[in-house]
Amino acid sequence: MWLSVPKPDKPKILVVNDDANSLFALTSLLDQWAEQESYEVIAARSGEEALRQVLMHDFAVILLDVNMPGMDGFETAEAIHQRERSANVPIIFITAFVADELDRLKAYQKGAADFLFTPVIPQILHAKITVFVALAMKNEELKRQARQLSQRTTDLVSSNKRLLQEIEERKVAERQNHAKDEFLAMLGHELRNPLSAISSAASLLGLPAVTPDAAVRAKKIIQRQSQHLGRIVDDLLDLSRAMSGKILLNRAPVDVAALFGNCLETYRSTGRTADYDLHVQLDSGWVDGDVTRLEQIFSNLLDNALKYTPPGGVIDVMLELEDDEVVLTVHDTGVGIAPELLPHVFDVFVQGTSTLDRAQGGLGIGLSLVRRLAELHGGSVEADSAGPGEGSTFLIRLPRTERITESNQPMMNTIEQSKPNVLLIEDNDDGREMMAMMLSCYGYEVRHAADGLQGLAVAQEYHPGVALVDIGLPGIDGYEVARRLRADPDTQNIRLIALTGYGLAEDQRRVLEAGFDMHLVKPVDIDSLMKAIASLTQGAAEPAVATAKP
């Protein structure tokens, strides 16, 4: 469908004359050619009325009588040309006498474009009017084209901006996709290495000629690599929780100097810092924070320094107080950070240049997690480096809180108590068998069930002291198992521990609302499980959420 373009207004001619007869004669004469030349005629009988018409319309030309009572032609012309919009309107003065040179000069000074003397000769009037109307139409056409050109320019500029923005967004998306592809490749590598070691160790244990020493080493390899896999899964889950805002902080007053000092002692005792010149200065400072997450912040920064600093390098760890903040600085003399990478070191999936041997390892998500955890604590993180080979500095700022004086807590009763019998409800056959065997090795009497309904039946018959219940069970899930056990007077006092692969705040809430006493996240190492059972059976324990990290 064609869109109709509105026709431009016809050029207008203003005729100003105080004499009614003269005004009628001029307008009638002009009307004869109005249709042919495509213009419109407007009349005014005084200078004041002429000014009102100029305020309402744009004119191609004004025919102005010189001799008018009140405001004469010269005064009217001066007033018209003082207005910005009508400053360039051509004015043709009409006079009944032949003007001398002084009158002509005065007229031109007031903005006159020409003179006509009465009686007006029609042919001359027609010729002059035709020129000015044509000029007006041409000027209007030029203005229209200029507006179109300006609009076209604006559209092109806007289109260019959108195009540049789309190009930049495409580049960012391509970089992100490339980073994700590299991350998936790294994840595959990081998962296959421990899985390969576990598979080889398990095969070795099945060989008939395996020596006791080799079996012990194989078992240690399986345990160590299983813990490594658990840490990889924990990092991925923590990053997912951090990005979705679902990390739940268990805040309490913490002396970060003591906390970080304990972490450093663990690194020293395991020999991880033996090949480095480690300088430590920790000033006591308290924050309102989550102990586990603060340890993650410090461990990730220290791991990063150890990973990218060759043996023999220097690592400086400093904790100091600045105004209302506790400031942690970790500086190393390692490989440094390239200028183009520095602004992105805290982005997800970003990691320095890696090689095929992957000697440094890691998934490149540690620093992203550091930033998010620092922000959740109301703090911030900064990175600085002079470039490749110049080392790196990472700085964490956390809000200070008042020092808390802790009262001496009574020592836990460590007298050996009789072990409760245990019910294990788990649908994974291998997992159920191995956990039952481990519990038996620690002196617990264990019964087990493969689904929720079978577990309820065993609980009625067996009356265990503790039940370990997987959440994702066939038939009825672990939540329903807990609700039914709590609703039955014969089983309502069983201490319930939930076993699940989900550790978000929502999962923890659902577990406790269903009636569980504790929540353990798989994989659960045997030491954490023993502590959990002991905490529930040695005295009255409050419902709790346990973070079963290796």
From TrEMBL:
Residues 186-402 form the Histidine kinase domain. It is a multi-pass membrane protein. Residues 12-133, 421-537 form the Response regulatory domain. One of its GO terms (molecular function) is phosphorelay sensor kinase activity. Transmembrane segments: none annotated. Keywords: Kinase, Phosphoprotein, Transferase. It comes from the Bacteria. Its EC number is 2.7.13.3. It catalyses: ATP + protein L-histidine = ADP + protein N-phospho-L-histidine. It is an enzyme of class 2 (transferase). One of its GO terms (cellular component) is plasma membrane. The modification 4-aspartylphosphate is found at residues 65, 470. The keyword Kinase applies. PROSITE patterns: HIS_KIN, RESPONSE_REGULATORY. It is found in: Cell inner membrane. PANTHER family: HYBRID SIGNAL TRANSDUCTION HISTIDINE KINASE C, TWO-COMPONENT HISTIDINE KINASE. This is histidine kinase.
